[in-house]
Task: inverse folding
């Protein structure tokens, strides 16, 4: 498990944060965890993006490309385009000059982030398509994996593995409070709702998990 002091430092120094999970059999708990994390991060001045997208926070912007070319000839007055399957056809009229490959430049719209925090993501190939499209340089950005399954914590810069927390939402509450962030009561209550839905899985809970559940149930109004 990563040193939480390192996690605190990485998140504390970051401004632009991308939070990622994927839709699967326990999607509701994953999304709850993502919402808790997003609310606390944005409440502490972070610029937060979510995948999957939801209404209250910014989605991952679509990747786009702009084609530039140097052209010497009569002024182009009309541009027509046709998109068919994987082919894009552009027609410039009038076109009196020449165009060679070295005249063409493609610029991709940059989407720069400081930190990617992943919940329930096995490896980079498991990232949602809207995230994968940006082809992030993972040597430059920090990645933090928060999970209760070892297989999902093998690829990040920092990996937080907590076997004894069957719910991601509870795990996020615990991690946030461990690294010094206050979690508002209504988000703790939402984590409790997820816990009650999965009470059978908490039946053989560890002392640490039972303590957290008790703390959530008894936490005063904030």
Result:
């Amino acid at each position: 498990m990563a040193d939480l002091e390192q996690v605190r430092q990485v998140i504390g120094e970051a401004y632009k944060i991308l939070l990622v999970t994927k839709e699967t059999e326990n999607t509701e708990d994953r999304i709850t965890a993502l919402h808790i994390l997003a609310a606390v991060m944005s409440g502490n001045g972070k610029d937060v993006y979510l995948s999957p997208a939801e209404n209250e926070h910014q989605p991952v912007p679509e990747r786009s490309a702009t084609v530039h070319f140097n052209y010497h000839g009569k002024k182009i007055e009309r541009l027509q385009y046709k998109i068919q399957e994987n082919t894009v056809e552009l027609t410039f009229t009038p076109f009196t000059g020449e165009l060679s490959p070295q005249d063409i430049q493609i610029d991709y719209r940059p989407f720069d982030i400081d930190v990617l925090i992943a919940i329930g993501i096995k490896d980079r190939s498991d990232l949602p398509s809207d995230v994968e499209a940006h082809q992030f340089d993972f040597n430059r950005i920090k990645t933090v994996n928060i999970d209760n399954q070892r297989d999902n914590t093998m690829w990040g810069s920092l990996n937080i593995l907590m076997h004894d927390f069957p719910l991601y939402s509870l795990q996020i509450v615990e991690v946030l409070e461990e690294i010094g962030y206050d979690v508002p009561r209504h988000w703790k209550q939402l984590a409790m709702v997820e816990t009650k839905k999965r009470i059978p899985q908490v039946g053989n809970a560890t002392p640490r998990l039972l303590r957290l559940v008790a703390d959530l149930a008894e936490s005063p109004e904030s």
Notes: The longest helix spans residues 27-43. The chain has two domains: 4-61+110-218, 66-108. Residues 135 and 191 are 33 Å apart (CA to CA).
